[in-house]
Design a protein that fits this description.
With about 375 residues, this protein is mainly α. It is built from 14 helices and 3 strands. It starts with 9 loop residues before the first helix and ends in an 8-residue tail after the last helix.
Length: about 375
């Protein structure tokens, strides 16, 4: 029996809004130089992100006001659309900075891979909850096999996003059926799957060499400049707007490497504050998953938690050269209209689950 919808999780909502405000402030600081040099407008990136943020907030509100069980009924069509869009990218997608990841519709462009993340979360939440107690190693492997087509399509041109989707799926599968032996086979299969992708393209193997010795390669320039930015920030930074590395030294400072410039401008203290905000966000997802009225709601909240956790960890790991460089944005902070739009849609999903949550002791 479903509970009557109540109020959404207030702490989650306030944290998301605070992250958005923080992200817009630092984005303007990091992107003003590039906007002025490239487009003659210091606020160029800020205005485009503001439009995407406003649209995303409207989507978040609409999704939050919708019963997530209604959205679960759309999970299979949404997944099929994500497959079609990802396939379309391979055929006639737009290429920027050497990567084919975008589709254009008139003057607008978007990344279908971002839509695949919430589509996979909804698909697995719906399918696993319908299995009920009929779970075994074989059915767990079947669930995992469901998302291999989208992982393969996305991974062809966007390995980092494919890794995130794979990580989300593995977390949701493990939560629904925490048996270690079948999960171990899934990990081995996923590792082999990624190993094949790494070996298919020479540039991916080159990234491993650059990661080990960035100073020996021209393409290691971005990594080194990012590390210089982190090191020069100290405890409290140079001050907001006073970064030197964003003045053309760190390429595309407003995108994947924005965390490095955050460390330079507001220091280790500001970076720790940002990470604490993300930890607060993850804690609320965990609370929502624990108090959800059914397994589907728990899996939706857990899947979103996994998405945010994986993406934040990988972005910071790339910037600090803990793992090889790859194109992963920092949620709510890096520039990217498609990313922020679907991130806010996921926040709406979590808020929808929290509206239907069951209070402790009333299960």
């Amino acid at each position: 029996m479903y509970t009557k919808p109540g109020k959404p999780d207030g702490i989650l909502l306030v944290t998301v809004l605070f992250l958005i405000a923080f992200g817009m402030v630092v984005l303007y600081s990091m992107s003003a130089y590039n906007g002025r040099v490239r487009f003659g407008d210091s606020a160029y990136y800020f205005k485009k992100q503001l439009f995407a943020m406003a649209l995303g907030l409207a989507v978040m509100y609409g999704v939050a006001c919708t019963d997530y069980h209604v959205l679960l009924r759309l999970s299979v069509p949404a997944y099929l659309v994500s497959l079609a869009l990802s396939g379309a990218v391979l055929l006639f997608g737009d290429t920027y900075n050497g990567s084919r990841r975008w589709l254009s519709v008139g003057p607008l462009s978007f990344q279908p891979a971002e839509f695949a993340k919430p589509a996979v979360i909804l698909l697995l939440a719906g399918f696993v909850s319908r299995m009920g107690r009929k779970k075994s190693g074989r059915t767990t492997a079947a669930v995992f096999a469901m998302i291999l087509p989208i992982v393969g399509l996305v991974g062809t041109n966007n390995l980092s996003t494919a890794v995130i989707i794979l990580g989300i799926a593995m977390l949701m599968i493990f939560i629904s059926n925490p048996r270690y032996l079948p999960f171990l086979w899934i990990i081995l299969a996923g590792t082999g799957f990624l190993g094949i992708f790494l070996s298919l393209e020479q540039y991916r193997l080159e990234r491993l060499a650059i990661w080990r010795n960035p100073e020996l390669y021209e393409k290691g320039y971005q990594t080194l400049q990012g590390l210089y930015a982190i090191g020069s920030g100290g405890l409290f930074g140079r001050g907001l707007g006073n970064s030197l590395q964003k003045l053309g030294f760190v390429p595309e400072a407003q995108n994947d490497m924005i965390f490095a410039v955050i460390c330079e401008e507001i220091g280790l203290s500001g970076a720790l504050l940002l990470m604490l905000l993300f930890l607060l966000l993850l804690w609320r997802f965990m609370v929502i998953a624990t108090h959800a009225q059914d397994l589907a709601g728990s899996l939706i909240a857990a899947g979103i938690m996994g998405h945010i956790a994986i993406q934040v960890i990988l972005n910071i790991a790339v910037v600090t050269n803990t793992i090889p460089n790859t194109g992963i944005t920092l949620p709510f902070v890096s520039y990217g209209g498609t990313s922020v739009l679907f991130l806010l849609a996921e926040m709406g999903l979590a808020l929808s689950v929290s509206r239907c949550s069951v209070c402790p002791g009333k299960r």
